[in-house]
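In the laboratory, one determines a bound structure by crystallizing the protein with its ligand and collecting diffraction data. In a computational setting the workflow is compressed into a single prediction: the sequence and the ligand go in, and a structural description comes out. We illustrate the idea with pyridoxal-5'-phosphate.
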Amino acid sequence: MTSKNLVKVLEESLQDLRDKGLYNQIDTLDEANGPEISIEGKKVINLSSNNYLGFATDPDLIAAANKATEEYGVGAGAVRTINGTLKIHNELEATLAKFKKTEATIAFQSGFNSNMGAIPAVMTKKDAILSDELNHASIIDGCRLSGAKIIRVKHQDMEDLRAKAKEAVESGLYEKIMYITDGVFSMDGDVAKLDQSIDICEEFDIITYVDDAHGSGVMGKGAGTVKHFGLSDRVDIQMGTLSKGLGVVGGYVAGKQVLIDWLKVRGRPFLFSTSLTPGAAAAAKAGVEKLMTSDEPVTKLWDNADYLKQGLVNLGFNIGHSESPITPCIVGDENLTQQFSTRLREEGVYAKSIVFPTVPRGTGRVRNMPSAAHTKDQLDRALAIYEKVGKELGII
Ligand SMILES: *Cc1c(COP(=O)(O)O)cnc(C)c1O
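The predicted complex, in structure-token form:
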């Protein structure tokens, strides 16, 4: 007999979430996650996907995936360290290293896995990690798994970083100290102040780790936030995703050869979980090659992002302090935010509401993710719907 207690506890926990309005109903897309999507037969303009460059449905990437699938099969057959390393994996890593201008890279099955693999491989319970308080869940989990002392740093607060870095170094308690931050923060779209934080870290000889999930394919002509600031040879560990800007799935870590050699023997998801499918590896490689040969996808993304942002500001919306394509429309009140998102969707715009506890209380927002694949017409239609619903609900 299965456990009655488990069912009871889970049912109560789910009810609790529903009572608090925190239960997330998952929508299913009828077709590809493109600039317009269909949900339950209804077409809506999609402003919720991380598919920044539209690469998820790019014909060149699809062709590369199909070709590699024919050549290598649908699965890699093993973990990388047994015999699941196919030529296409090595080719992807070599291409990524060229793109990132680092000595080497290592590919993981996801961005999440990259953090879960790399952080505990480098940091131990003898160490300390200075972590921005708004860092992504996968960073938090990777840090916890490492056993290192986690020191939360106030969001983007350089005074706080300096004080805590100094204190950690002077305490003499730790073998190594790392500073870890998102390159682009996903809720406000603000960009990490790497120009300042890296100086502070160098002053105290602190290891630097940038998670560039939302910067890959977006910042620095696609090569990321570290490249954007011209810091490629001053950041120890750059993590990126193949799932957002590159539209496929997977993640990677870029850095010195010695770091990558170490991760290949100590990055647990690399050692104990089957490697990327050949199709995904080939599609991601084709995506990186596209970015290396043409500025067009990234330029188009920023054009569209600027257009949408300006349009929303002109209508009177508060888009906070976004510095990236991630564009929040800050509403404030939680219930009004939910209502706003629901009405937008009824009128034809799919933009998700984000409320407490994901963001601080009273800062509920609808988050927009424009992409290179949107047409001006789609953005104009979206803005017209924003105007209509915003006025209707008294937000503008
Ligand atoms: C999305 C995200 C990840 C996880 O990436 P996946 O490739 O989706 O697993 C890691 N870090 C940050 C900051 C992210 O936004």
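Residues 110-112, 115, 136, 138, 182, 186, 211, 213-214, 241, 243, 251 surround pyridoxal-5'-phosphate (CB under 6 Å). Keep in mind that any predicted model is a hypothesis to be tested, not a measurement.
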